[in-house]
Specification:
This protein is α/β, with parallel strands linked by helices. It has 13 helices and 12 strands. The strands form 3 sheets. It has an 8-stranded parallel β-sheet with strand order 4-11-10-9-8-7-6-5. α1 runs antiparallel to α12, α9 crosses α10 and α11 packs across α12. Belongs to the FMN-dependent alpha-hydroxy acid dehydrogenase family.
Length: about 375
C-alpha cells in the first residue's frame, strides 16, 4: 500500500489507521459487509458514542511503571483481557482466512473463537499452542448442531459460545444495496453440503441454516450435551442474564452483535453495569460491540467485564496484511492497553476492574451506571 506514487504509507499507529488501510485494499462491497450495521445503523454508531461518553477516574501514586495485562478468560490463559470474536466468512476479506487469524491470536497469546460459519474446516482453526473457543448457532439441522458441540470437545475448545440474538439476520442495508452474496471460496464448510449456501445473500443464507425458534428449553438441551463452559452471546437484559445463569450458563457476552441485529438496541457498554449488578460473580462477563482500542478495553473492565471480544479490527488487520496484519493490530491493542492501564494507575487487570467511571453529562443513568 502506498501513500502516493512511490511513497510508502506510514505504519498504523491506531486501529483506526488499520481500518483505513483495509478500506484501501478491499472491494467496496466487502468493506461494507464488514463495516456495516442493520437498518439506519443507529446502534452501530451508538456503540461508539457510549464509549466516548464513559470517562475513567485514574488513580495516582500507585507506582505503576508497567502494567500487567495477563488474565484468564473462561479458564483460558490470555496475555490480555481480549479474545478474537466469532466472525463469519474470513476468506471474504483475505484468502488466508481463519487459519491466519487463529495463528496470529496464538502468537499474541489470546484465545481465538471459531465461528459456525467459518470458511475453513474446524481442524484448520486450532491454533498451535493457542486457546480455542467455538461459537455455535442454533441450526435447523439439529444433528449438525450436536456434531459441532462434539467437535468443540474433540478439538479441545475451552468454551462453547451460543449466539442467542440471531433468530434471523437483521436488515443490513449496505449488503442489500450492494447485492452482496457469499462467494464460493468463503462458503461455510463446517455445515452440511445442503446448507453451505455459496452465492446466497448473507440474510438468505442465515435464514436457510439458523432455526429462529431457539428458546430457554433449547438452552437446557445444549447444557446437557457438553461438559464445556457454556456462554450465551447477545444478552442485554438483566432478567435474561439471571435466567441464563440459573439454567447453567457459565458466562455471558453482553453484545448487540456489533449493531448488526436490532437497530435501536441499547449499546452494549450501557447494558453491562446492570447485568453485572444482577449476576454478581456468578459468571464471567465479556463485552463486545464497539471496541476500537486499548482504552475501550479498560473502560469495559472498569464497568465489570472480565474482558472483551474484538471483532472488526481483527478483520481490518487480516485485510491489510494477512496473518502479519492481524499480529500488528493485536500488538497495537496491547500497547494501548498497557499505556492506558499505567496512566490510570492500574498495575494489573484486577486493579483495572476497581477503577471508577463517570458518565458524560446527559447520559441516562439508568443505562450508564
Amino acid at each position: 500500500m502506498t501513500g502516493g506514487p512511490g511513497v510508502l504509507a506510514p505504519d498504523p499507529l491506531t486501529l483506526a489507521d488499520v481500518e483505513d488501510r483495509a478500506r484501501a485494499v478491499l472491494a467496496p462491497e466487502v468493506y461494507d459487509f464488514v463495516a456495516g450495521g442493520s437498518g439506519d445503523e443507529s446502534t452501530l454508531h451508538a456503540n461508539r458514542t457510549a464509549f466516548d461518553r464513559c470517562h475513567l477516574v485514574p488513580r495516582v501514586l500507585n507506582g505503576v511503571e508497567t502494567a500487567d495485562t495477563t488474565t484468564t478468560l473462561l479458564g483460558a490463559a490470555s496475555s490480555m483481557p481480549v479474545a478474537v470474536a466469532p466472525m463469519a466468512f474470513h476468506s471474504v476479506v483475505h484468502p488466508d482466512g481463519e487459519p491466519a487469524v487463529s495463528r496470529a491470536a496464538a502468537a499474541a497469546g489470546i484465545p481465538f473463537t471459531a465461528a459456525t460459519l467459518a470458511s475453513r474446516p474446524l481442524d484448520e482453526l486450532v491454533p498451535a499452542g493457542g486457546e480455542l473457543f467455538l461459537q455455535l448457532y442454533w441450526l435447523r439441522d439439529r444433528a449438525r448442531t450436536a456434531w459441532l458441540i462434539a467437535e468443540a470437545e474433540r478439538l479441545g475448545a475451552r468454551a462453547l459460545i451460543l449466539t442467542v440474538d440471531v433468530p434471523f439476520m437483521g436488515r443490513r442495508l449496505r449488503d442489500l444495496r450492494n447485492g452482496f452474496a457469499v462467494p464460493a471460496h468463503a462458503a461455510p464448510v463446517n455445515l452440511a453440503d445442503t446448507q453451505r449456501g455459496a452465492g446466497q445473500t448473507v440474510g438468505g443464507h442465515a435464514a436457510a441454516v439458523i432455526d429462529p425458534t431457539l428458546s430457554w428449553a433449547d438452552l437446557e438441551w445444549v447444557r446437557r450435551r457438553t461438559r464445556l463452559p457454556l456462554v450465551l452471546k447477545g444478552v442485554l437484559d438483566p432478567a435474561d442474564a439471571r435466567r441464563a445463569v440459573d439454567l447453567g450458563a457459565d458466562g455471558l457476552v453482553v453484545s448487540n452483535h456489533g449493531g448488526r441485529q436490532l437497530d435501536g438496541a441499547v449499546p452494549s457498554l450501557f447494558a453491562l453495569p446492570a447485568i453485572r449488578d444482577e449476576v454478581g460473580d456468578a459468571c464471567e462477563l465479556l463485552l463486545d460491540s464497539g471496541v476500537r482500542g486499548g482504552t475501550d478495553v479498560l473502560r469495559a473492565l472498569a464497568l465489570g467485564a472480565s474482558g472483551v471480544l474484538l471483532g472488526r479490527p481483527v478483520l481490518w488487520g487480516l485485510a491489510d496484511g494477512g496473518e502479519s496484519g492481524v499480529t500488528g493490530a493485536l500488538r497495537l491493542l496491547r500497547t494501548e492497553l498497557e499505556v492506558s492501564m499505567a496512566l490510570a494507575g492500574a498495575p494489573n487487570v484486577a486493579a483495572a476492574r476497581r477503577l471508577g467511571v463517570r458518565w458524560a453529562p446527559g447520559t441516562d443513568e439508568r443505562e450508564g451506571s
